[in-house]
Write a structure and sequence with these properties.
Elements: H1 2-10, E1 13-16, H2 19-31, E2 36-41, H3 46-61, E3 66-71, H4 76-81, E4 89-94, E5 97-103, H5 107-125
Parallel strand pairs: 1-3, 2-3
Antiparallel strand pairs: 2-4, 4-5
Pfam family, one: Thioredoxin
Domain Thioredoxin: 1-119
Protein name: Thioredoxin domain-containing protein
Length: 126
């Protein structure tokens, strides 16, 4: 139990574990005008697993963004609906709609795209 509390306390990345939690997260984010960044991952995919600490770091650096992680084996329906065919895949969403997709473990490009996405989101909201 203690380990679970620690992870909830430290992690800003929300793990999606069902199609229902996916919908709930996106609906709440859209209602709050919050941009969403999703990491589609798989436990067996080493590049995906290697990106987890980097994704956590991005989440901590961007408190106004909802960061989600989806294990494609656990939530196949969401991965299929979002047309995820390779891991890792990073998806940027605004109002439940994908606006950018990046396939592969490329930290510099991911950071650049997220920074641009967040800035464009902030200026369009302001």
């Amino acid at each position: 139990m203690e380990g679970q509390y620690d992870q909830q306390n430290k992690s800003r990345v929300v793990k999606v574990d069902s199609p229902e939690s996916w919908e709930t997260c996106l609906t709440q984010a859209a209602a709050q005008g919050c941009p969403v960044v999703v990491h589609f991952t798989a436990a067996w995919c080493m590049p995906s697993v290697a990106m987890n600490p980097f994704f956590e770091e991005l989440a901590s650096a961007n408190p106004d963004v909802l960061f989600l992680t989806v294990d494609v084996d656990d939530v196949k329906e969401v991965a299929t609906r979002m047309e995820v065919k390779a891991m890792p895949t990073f998806l940027l969403l605004k109002d439940k709609t994908p606006v950018d997709k990046l396939v592969g473990a490329n930290p510099e490009e991911i950071r650049k795209r997220i920074d641009g996405f967040v800035q464009s989101f902030c200026t369009s909201v302001a």
